[in-house]
Amino acid sequence: MPxxxxxxxxxxxxxxxxSVCRLLSEETPDVLCLQExxxxxxxxxxxKFSKLGYKYLIASGQKGYNGVAILSRLPLKEIARRDFASxxxxxxxxxNVDNKLNIHNFYVPAGGDIPDRNINEKFGQKLDYLSEMAExxxxxxxxxxxxxxxxxxxPGEEDVWDHKKLLKIVSHTPQEIQAxxxxxxxxxxxxxxxxxxxxxxxxxxxxxxxxxxDTANKGRxxxxxxxxxxxxDKGYGSYISRDVRGWEKPSDHAPIFSSFDL
Length: 262
Hints:
Blueprint: E1 2-9, H1 17-27, E2 31-35, H2 47-51, E3 56-60, E4 68-72, E5 76-80, E6 92-97, E7 101-107, H3 121-140, E8 145-150, H4 163-166, H5 174-186, E9 190-191, H6 192-196, E10 205-206, H7 213-216, E11 219-220, E12 223-227, H8 229-232, E13 235-240, E14 256-261
Parallel strand pairs: 1-2, 7-8
Antiparallel strand pairs: 1-14, 2-4, 3-4, 5-6, 6-7, 8-12, 9-12, 10-11, 13-14
């Protein structure tokens, strides 16, 4: 049975409710994982989503900040929500999809502007968050699972517009990349996007600060879909819907997709 999964940092689910509906109508994922919802759980709009066939919603919400949610056409059961690094932020939710697949949806802290935890508390929080993720999955030993979300790190040289220039910029520093690699090794996760698209520049985020983001194309691949090794070979058809970044009142992230034949 094929299951198409989408991950998208929506940057306010209420502000972009119509964009979510458009994506659901045009791309028809079976499961949509959203980050940065910026809404309490009871304020997340559901009526339009339900009319489109997405009757199942599990979320971890927070007023005005953070927040993750999972919409699905298939039955969902919550299996975990965790406050990594004790930040009291709504940044993680995990579900079982129709007794076939577990999904962990993450919104990793951005980390501020200065890549030095001694003078930038937010950077330290990011590193601590990633460290606890690695410890968690090392102890959990997940199977038939995928990890998705805005991980706020572009790990590869072709995941950023200029590798050398960004080595000292938060999201592409060696320290962050090493921390992300430790998360990947903790459960032998496989980067499904790069399995399907192993080479070439690939971005999922373009700054609002760029007047013409499309022409400048100074992007980063901050959004990810990983899978445990037992189902990694069943993942296929990954892509990033870049055009969505150009929709009216867009998020600064584009949605990413992978399918799994389970």
